[in-house]
User: What shape does this take?
Amino acid sequence: MSNAKVSDNKKFWQFVWRSWAIQASWNYERQMNMGFLYGIAPTLDRLYPNEKDPEQLAHKKEAYNRHMAFYNCTPQTSAFTLGLAASMEEQYAADRENFNPDTINAVKTSLMGPLSGIGDSFFQGTVRIIAFGLGIQLAQQGSILGPILAMLISFVPSFVVTWLCAKIGYTTGSKYLTNLQGGMMDKMMYVCGIVGLMVIGAMVASMVGLTTPIAFESTGLVLQDIIDTILPCAIDLAVVMGMYTLIKKKVSTGWLLLTCIVGGIVVNALGILI
Assistant: This one.
């Protein structure tokens, strides 16, 4: 493998620059997945350099396909995930018998929520507001320092955090993943799966927001109140599980979107859901 010829410092810089370009190919189906693949592609190319070797080519295709899974996270903190995933790919390439590759995407999924919460709050909700608040005040006074200061205050923390995330993610993975053997790796994957399901459950409860206006005038009962008493957000859960079933049946994204649009119009027109 040619991976040993590349310095860690060069790898860190690749994670930094490519994490900033992670939204360049953003899409509604899997969001930043192609950007993440772009970020980890140099690692995969180093691990499997010989495409004329059928075995290496198969492993490379497997790895590329693995990183086409759904991904969505703050670009700056994505450098941590890129570094960690790269170190896990190196570990998997070095020890296929004792390393479960499903763990790589499980770790990515478990990190998306926490890193997005921290990253978005810090960069979008704090740094950007402070930077442009100060910049606008100076600009209103006619000072050219306004936009310059705004860009500098935005850039410096972003650069520092992205670099540290890339370095810590990769070095932490390289240091500790070698100690995960057999059952320990399975336990890690199990925990990551639980965290991922918790994040998905929270997103369903907070982002779907479907209710029914159906009420029984004769008795004064409101159907939504009854449903909430039995299981809050039950309608949201039922719709999401219905879409999940369609996805498992390999229904295309186009048909899923059409089902949501037409179905939403119909049930709203009939007064079933709002």
Notes: Residues 102-140 form the longest helix (39 residues). The chain has a mean pLDDT of 87. The beta strands are 215-216, 221-222.
